[in-house]
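User: For documentation purposes, I need each entry recorded in a consistent format: the amino acid sequence on its own, followed directly by the corresponding structure tokens. There are two entries in this batch. Please keep commentary to a minimum and don't merge the entries.

Assistant: Recorded as requested. Entry 1:
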Amino acid sequence: MAHFSYLSDAQQAELKKTAEAIVAPGKGILAADESTGTMGKRLSNIGVENTEENRRIYRQLLFTSDKSMENYISGVILFHETLFQKTDDGTNFVTLLQNRGIIPGIKVDKGVIDLMGTDGECTTQGLDDLGSRCAEYYKLGCRFAKWRCVLKIRDLTPSPLSILENANVLARYATECQKNGIVPIVEPEILPDGDHDLERCQKVTEKVLAAVYKALSDHHVYLEGITFLSGGQSEEEASIHLDALNKYPGKKPWALTFSYGRALQASALKAWAGKNEAIKAGQDEFLKRAKANSEASLGKYGGGVSGAAAAETLFIKDHAY
């Protein structure tokens, strides 16, 4: 008789509590897990040098925004470097977030690599030591994680091999996280690049999601909520589209909320521009977008929230971070 290894009731209860807190009504995730290289590009755009101290100052700006942040943001995805950074008064960023009732998360993938046997498609690396890293991240206070797989739409892609490989990688990642008490954010990102039409995008998305859900089921992964990426949309577009999803009257089996990086930060970054005297201005812009997306996650966003970069496209070709 076949025997499968399942999570205990206590493990499931802990994961469910974390997942439900992440997708609590009116709240979503701030994705602040940009790599050192990606942060360099963002800082370069505002004329700021890419140093560890400047990255710390910018993330401190976000994490120390006023108390209203706690009404909109349920969790923050951190980069490994950020786990060990502190505020000016010596408070560790993880402790700061925990004290504010915000759940710390961590990016655990190690980036994409070429998938042999395909036409320029990729898979994601980092599974080899994932279990031990998750155990360590749990000790450091992280309670959820993120792993990104990337699929591209072209004439003959994504290929069946790419879809199957990335679905199984995501499922294996998810099981390692859950064994260690960490809620996995499963991110099969289908890039918007290309000249394909909406119908093809829909068909590819359905095929990819079907494969991912099957892999999650095959690996006995425990699933509790859905968050959406901004995917290179402008800040305002990301809010409007999330709002439209939540206004749709059909049945939704999961909470539909946000996990936004650029769409929460673009105006804040531009308003701050690396100036100490503009930290409050940057925080105000961040909170403005956080509130807009909070309302959108409830289907109550009226639109029209302006910002320093609210209407600017955030699209990046072949986006990697």
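Entry 2:
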Amino acid sequence: MDMNTPMKHCYVNTTVLNEEPMVAVRPGALSAEDCAYLIKAARGELKRAKVSLDSGAAELPGRTGSNAWLRYQDDPTVQRIGQTIADWIGIPLANAEAIQVIHYGPEQKYGAHFDAYDLHTEKGRRCCARGGQRLVTCLIYLDDVAAGGSTSFPKLGLTVPAEKGKMLIFHNVDRADYTKAHPLSLHGGDPVLDGEKWACNIWFHERAMSAAAEFPPLKARASPALTPDAPRTSCIVSNRSAEQFEQVAARLAPRLQQQARSTLLLYWDTFGNTPDYDTRGYGRVVQLIDRKLLNAVSNKRKLGEAVAAAGLHHLCPPTFSSVSDALASGLAPKLWFVKNPYGTGGKGMSCVPHAALAGLELPQHAILQAGAQNLHTLNGKKYTIRAYVLVWNQLYFVYPNGVVIVHAPDYDEASPDADVQINHAGYMNPASGVVMKSLSDIGLADDVTQRAHQTMTALQPVLANLIRASSPEAYVILGVDFLRQQDGALQLIEINAFPNFTHTAHINQTVNVPMLTAALGMMLEGGEPPAAKAGAATTVAKVTAPTASPAPAPSG
């Protein structure tokens, strides 16, 4: 396919956040008057936003906001705004879709997705039939969001706060290949925690929107509905961390690959921009536990309440839903952490000294968590541990290696500096000072695995519904985050039901891929950890057997 429109290597008056793919911001791109005009023009036209599917579009839970489209030819002000932005981007306005104004209320969001399409698919060709591929996205924030509503790039570790008039520019494709989305351009709109969010998008294409795109013929593809006897190259269907799962399928032993022919394992996140996967026509299907149960353990407020109700206060820092409750507890940690109940990786988090707690206006829906005391450090720096736990077939298995993320600045227990206490998003950038290691790298794998297993055993009353919902055909891999104290004790910080398996090359190869391979092998075998079986396949036997604990018997 001809790449008719080149993307610029720099944009004037912008700050570059990432070079490839380009991610940049331009503060004050639109005036307050223009922002207000676009909101007013769109307000009466808003409809529930839809997501493009293989055939048509539909409303999905991963996108819960509303949108309206403003055409340039219908309004001189909209035309002027669009032309100004087109001049900055260096692509003709004729190549741009109409301005899409979007609105999100409390807790509304748009899950992680790509703006570009795979032009090797029918869906991609349908969506790009006029104008060809989406090259550049311009997102302009039209108001200041009280809390939440940032735009996040999970694979780049970037979060861009929503600030009125600021324009976010990012490239959706590789400069050398316009036929598919750049894998690092994955992005999403974080939930609005307080107030509302107004923004607008302009997508610039490679051709004029009036021009028909030209595509080479599609290669013939087999039907995705397979019978147990039908051959396929992989038994895994995933819409997250696909590269890691492809490596997992390739590492399976021949006898497990034979078993995989009659098994489909789904790692399918319906919280993003996709519906449930159609499993009709497959043989055995192993899929994730119901999303409602997963959301319950991922919600830090609900998790804190459940831990407290079970009398397990020692397992995690005390959690409160209001400033008054925190003050009434009589606790006086040096710091309090303000957290988004749903955010991960430090999103929506800040910290305040205890002396400032009484004057804190807690954002709507936020929680307060007391700062953990007497933390162990690595070379004087704070670190967070992620342990992986497979819940499957009424059992849970703690994988015997995990991930450690070490903050860049030296640790000070009383410092409210976010870089000291919270931020670790730069682990993919060697210049950030944030370092990612495995537990085995720092000699803590055995100790942390044992303690994590003890924590999971103690948490059985809290996780009982989740464990009971697991079966030979229902599972989840939890990312359980801990802080480690000087005496080795672990403090539970949060549980992620959809952890990120895309990290540095070292972590992918030493932790994530071996862990996923062991988990898949176990579920294919239908029983005990593969490494514990006599004659286990070499690719699995190299992994130390995870520790298994039975779920509590159902009551009643």
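Summary note for entry 2:
The first strand starts at residue 15 and ends at 19.
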